[in-house]
């Protein structure tokens, strides 16, 4: 790199940072609005007999996610599919998977945590 290139690199860094921050703010705002419109279909608190099978691993930010305390199956308006949410003790989403049917979401939960179909509780 030539000595004059350092000035260009500094300008580039200053320009990219605010754009990236704006995109994160926009994504957060859109997600919060969308999450408020969701419909909780089914839920289960994971407990005895629901240890991770190890058949699937989830990553966020390059790190493996910790096991969830609760699973929720939700649906958004105008979306025919269902999301299986993996939530922590406080009910905050850790990660999610998308499924075309409720049955597929429940099958994924059984595959990962041995959750039987009859163990699910209806959502609110």
Class derived from helix and strand content: alpha+beta
In helices, the fraction of residues equals 25-40%
Q: Which word captures the global form?
A: globular
Largest sheet: 5 strands, antiparallel
Radius of gyration: 20 Å
Instruction: Count all strands and give the number.
Output: 7
What proportion of the residues form beta strands (DSSP E)? Answer: 25-35%
Order of helical and strand elements: HEEEEEEHE
Number of domains: 2
Low-confidence stretches: 7-33
**What is the number of helices?**
2
What does the average pLDDT come to? 81
Cα distance, first to last residue? 60 Å
Q: How are the strands of the biggest sheet laid out side by side?
A: 6-5-4-1-7
Notes on the protein architecture:
The chain has 124 residues and is α+β, with helices and mostly antiparallel strands. The chain has two domains: 1-36; 38-122, no CATH class. It is 35% helix and 26% strand. It has helices spanning 5-36, 102-113, and strands at 39-45, 59-60, 63-64, 70-75, 82-87, 93-99, 121-122. A hairpin with a 2-residue loop joins strand 2 and strand 3. It is globular. The relative contact order is 0.17.
């Amino acid at each position: 790199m030539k000595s004059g290139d350092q000035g260009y690199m500094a300008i580039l860094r200053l320009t990219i940072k605010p754009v990236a921050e704006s995109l994160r703010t926009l994504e957060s705002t859109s997600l919060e609005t969308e999450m408020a419109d969701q419909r909780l279909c089914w839920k289960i608190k994971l407990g005895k007999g629901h240890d991770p099978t190890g058949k699937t691993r989830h990553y966020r930010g390059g790190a493996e996610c910790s096991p969830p305390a609760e699973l929720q199956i939700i649906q958004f308006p105008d979306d025919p599919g269902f999301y299986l949410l993996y939530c922590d003790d406080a009910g905050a989403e850790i990660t999610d998977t998308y499924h075309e049917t409720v049955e597929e979401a429940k099958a994924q939960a059984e595959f990962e945590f041995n959750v039987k179909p009859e163990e699910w509780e209806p959502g609110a």
